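Predict structure. Chain length: 657.
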Amino acid sequence: MTTEQHPGESPVETLAETVAEQAVRLQAQEQTIRELEQRLTRQEERLRAWERQAAGLGSVAAGDRQPVTTGIGQAFSGMKRFFGRSVAEWDTLLGGTVLNRVGILVLLLGLVFFLKYAFDNAWLGPAGRVTIGLIFGLVLLAGGERFRNQGYSRFAYGLTGGGLGALYASIFAAYQFYRLVAFTPAFGLMLLVTATGIGLALRHGSPAIAALALASGFVTPFVLTTPEPQPYGLFAYLTALNLVVVGIAVRRGWRAVNLLGFVFTVGSVVAWLESGFWPRFPEATLVFGTVCFGLYLVVAAFFSLRSGRPDRRVDMLLIAANPTAYFGFLYVVLDHPQFLLWDDWAGFLAAALALVYFALGYGIWRGVKAGLLPARLYLGVATALLTLAVPLQLSDQAVTLCWTVLALVLWYAGLVIRDGRVRLAAGLIGLLTLVHLMVVDTPVAVWAADVYRPLLNGRTLAFLAVAGGLLVAVRVYRRLSPEPAAGMPSRERRLVNRLPVLAGLLGLLLFTLEANTYCDFQIAQVSKEMAEATQSYQQSPAMFKVDIPPEAYAPWRQQIDYWRNAGRLAVSGIWTLAACLLIASGLWFRRHRWRLAGMGLLGVVLLKVFFLDLAQLDLVFRIVTFMGLGAVMLAASYFYDRFAGSAGKRKGPQEDG
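Prediction complete.
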């Protein structure tokens, strides 16, 4: 396309106008192409989602990974998928599934009401009611098979589930309510119903029928009660049923069946513990719980290692829930008076479980692919168990030391493998260590102590360990740069660069606490002496008692006032010394921020002196405080003017901003 040349325009101006028009059109075309690419990407995502839904999978095939969302994001995405259905999808869900399931339930309730009416009017006896229930269940099963053969699978599943429920309820009523059959036949018939349901589930390929059949199988031993407990038969039956669960899950790839079996197993164990019979069989109970834990541990690891299988949320939930339930089970059993082993072995047990999960996580990480989500989850569970093992087996400052070492190890590993989740775990453990340091290690019971050595105690060791750990973490980060650390987010790098400040604050807090605690200890010793003198007077014979004049307490009160003033003066001196060190270091290393921090700390000391010490210190301490602080501030001003004022005239590196 050409642009007409108007009279008076030069060829250069005409060419410029043409180029400008073409540039505008090209920009508009590029914007259109970008919009089309975005629309194409959205359509491809929708197509992949429909393919996953049609295949019955919860994630994409191996090698086509989705970004992993966690927590609230997963909840909202799940709600969006459920409520964001189209009209056709809602029509299929309500008409094909909901109506079928609700209709079967209403039909069963109608049968129950009919049988009750017939029994109330003496039409049927107990045997007749049970017989009608069995016939009704068999008819529903036959109808389910017939409709399935005709292609109405969804409708057939509802009839099959209703038939299994009717058979199960009829056998239960025959044993529990009417006593028409003994325990052994009733148990065998219920097992037959469970086996029938499992067979139909495998034949139809229906996880829903399998879930119903397994639920009836787990409930059976608890609804058919016996006069005396039979734990060995119960545990053997539940173990066999769990093996059936695992077999179904492995054969059909129904991972949700694993989770369902685990939930029912936990419920069975809780029901057995609540029954009150387990203290008579503690060893069998402990062995059964351990066998179930090991079974689901192996199953979860198998699915994580199985090639060609994508990660599923049910697997993740099973990996995390299994050790949690087992550890709670161990607490209930081992803390019982029958054992009384929890206090001595809890930490070792947690460490042993952590070792098992670490080995599995490392094996999956090496055997499948680095960064696989199950491997990270196994390693996360191992870290949590190891973190829990420390306070269970150790106490006080030992917990702080061990947690500091654990956080450093995770921090180093996260830098080496460039995994932000590992570094986040290290940060969380470090935060937990700080909380433990402040809440558990900081308080000192000076009134109960006979001797106190400043800086030579466990609290100083704990503070130095944490502060040193922070400095080591920064050193490791800077030493491994630029490779691993260069991949850190900018916010994370800024946070790492602030860790030395936190270490310095911990050091300042340590010296402040030590000075205050030593003075409080001296006050406590003087108060004890005064209390002992008063008590000895009160216990003397009445004929020798005389009124103690208030002047007799004067020496003790003077000592108490002295140590209070000494504590306030020591705090001001420590803060002033720290400020001088900051200013001197800032002058030597030419750091603006260090000098500003030192002057800010001097300002805090000045406020403390004027608003607290001026009203609380005695005259001698007040003189020392004001003269010392004034001299320090004048000296700092002199050296600042001498060195910082001429810094720009000397050759050297430029000062920081």
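Summary: The chain is about 80% helix and 0% strand.
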